[in-house]
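EI: anyone free to look at a 193-residue chain?
SC: sure, send it
EI:
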Amino acid sequence: MSTHDDTYDTSVLSGVEDTSSGSRALETKWHGGLDFGLLIMRVALGVTMGAHGLQHLFGLFGGPGIAGFARFLGSFGFTSQTTLLSWLTGISEVGGGALVIVGLFTPLGATALLGVAVNIVYAKWHGGFFEGQGGGFEFELLLGVVALTLLFTGAGRFSLDANTPWRRRPVPLGLLGVLLAAAVSVAVIVLFR
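SC: here you go
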């Protein structure tokens, strides 16, 4: 395959790594916008979920704090150990959000955020899709889809995970993350509802 700038290198998409300098230059050129886009997506997801976690844990930004969040969870049908669930949710949001923002152990952070989002969607399911219909879960669904996307794309080059195996081959850990998030979500529904 030619290594001129105007040709398309299919090895970039197929995952077959050609170590020639021309192929490496095309791979870098091809992924430049993608890596920046992943950075924007990571920061948006991490800040959003992390801020909600700070509301839940410490009452920051006008949030309810642990006791208020435990009562809120009770209003959504969680009946057992709501204080413990409040702590677990807040820590998952803050910790997962921080990991995703800096791109460190991104599969772990994205898995935590996906698990939280799945449980929120489940809790709000009866309220309909749109926010104005007495609840709505479209916002949380979007956050969950962004976390799911990061599981399969990896953090990109603008991250602390840049030279890790899971950044270069994110699909196996992405599948593991989906299974783990699903298992934790089911456990939360069974144990806390």
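EI: Residues 1-19 have pLDDT under 50 and may be disordered.
SC: 👍
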